[in-house]
Design a protein that fits this description.
Keywords: Transferase. This is 3-deoxy-7-phosphoheptulonate synthase. Its EC number is 2.5.1.54. GO terms for molecular function: 3-deoxy-7-phosphoheptulonate synthase activity; aldehyde-lyase activity. By secondary structure, this protein is α/β, with parallel strands linked by helices. It has one domain: Aldolase class I (TIM Barrel). Helix content is 39%, strand content 15%. It has 9 helices and 10 strands. An 8-stranded parallel barrel has the order 3-4-5-6-7-8-9-10, surrounded by 7 helices. α1 runs parallel beside α9, α2 packs parallel to α3 and α4 packs across α5. It is globular and about 45 Å long. Bound molecules: phosphoenolpyruvate and manganese (II) ion. Phosphoenolpyruvate (PEP) binds next to loops.
Amino acid sequence: LSNRKFHPEPSIVKVGNTEIGPNNLTIMAGPCAIESEEQLMTIARAVKKSGATILRGGAYKPRTSPYSFQGLEEEGLRYMKEASEETGLATICEVISTSSLEAAIKYVDMVQVGARNMQNFQLLREVGRSGHPVLLKRGMAATIDEWLNAAEYIMAEGNPNVVLCERGIRTYETATRNTLDISAVPVIRSKSHLPIIVDPSHATGVRAYVAPLAKCAIAAGADGIMVETHNNPACALSDGPQSLTLPQFDELAKMLDAYAKLE
Ligand code: PEP
Ligand code: MN
């Protein structure tokens, strides 16, 4: 179902009031974790002004340590809905279980299956049955074939609204959190009709490397990017070191807009 051989035209996935696909650069931005109503609203207003089209924010955080902040859960989802109503931004939130999926589809326009759950086949099937637009991140040690098979699990349940996200893979390199596999963009393009975006934040783990790799993603032909952005990264409850400040995001969004116009 995801194979380009049987569907030569690139797919367009509708998310709220926007579309992910060719001729429309998608910029998803927002905090790693939703921390408070004020934090989310501040970030939402700023990224909207800068040109983002989709607001990201985690309400259910799959943290490496069980002692780290795990997210505001349904309270966070309510803030996402409020931010969407005020700014007009479409919204995306990660789901990690059946119950978080059931809650998320009531409040946000797109759900995200994260790297850690890319091969949670039961969750993939449930996301498939929900019919909700879904962003499927690449597992941190997944091959492109395994990733496309994960997309098949969703699509086989009758949900064609799948967007792929390259977010870096585990390699021997330790200078960055993961290694961005930029070749995944043209490889996916040749194998699949599904839209693909790039997340340079989780790929690098380092704020200073986010903008160069975001530009690289667009140059490679990605349909968009997802960038962690925070009003006060030094105090962020999750992924502060890789989060752009609001002025840094503004600069990046303007640059990408200029890039997109060049094409
Ligand atoms: C995230 O987007 O917040 C996240 C946890 O990403 P990943 O699944 O790529 O690690
Ligand atoms: Mn994060």
